[in-house]
Design goal:
The chain has 1 helix and 4 strands. It is an alpha+beta fold and 73 residues long.
């Protein structure tokens, strides 16, 4: 198994130790290349920011750019 961003070899039994899966695309990403997106969560008692791990390809600006390019083709 390899990191989506850098191609680094990842061991399957080290999930959570040296790598995680992207929340959006579910592909493996090493901790050196993982990014986090903050999302507002609203509950009855309080509002808070929850962060989700994502790969570089699923960052908001890159994702929007990729979607627009796909529509224009």
């Amino acid at each position: 198994m390899k990191c989506v961003t850098c191609g680094k070899e990842l061991k399957e039994d080290e999930e959570g130790v040296s790598w995680r899966r992207c929340t959006i695309c579910k592909k493996p990403v090493c901790f050196d290349d993982i990014h986090y997106i903050g999302t507002w969560m609203r509950t009855i008692y309080r509002n808070y920011v929850d962060v989700i791990p994502v790969c570089e390809n699923e960052l908001p600006k890159k994702r929007i750019k990729r979607l627009v390019e796909e529509k224009l083709e």
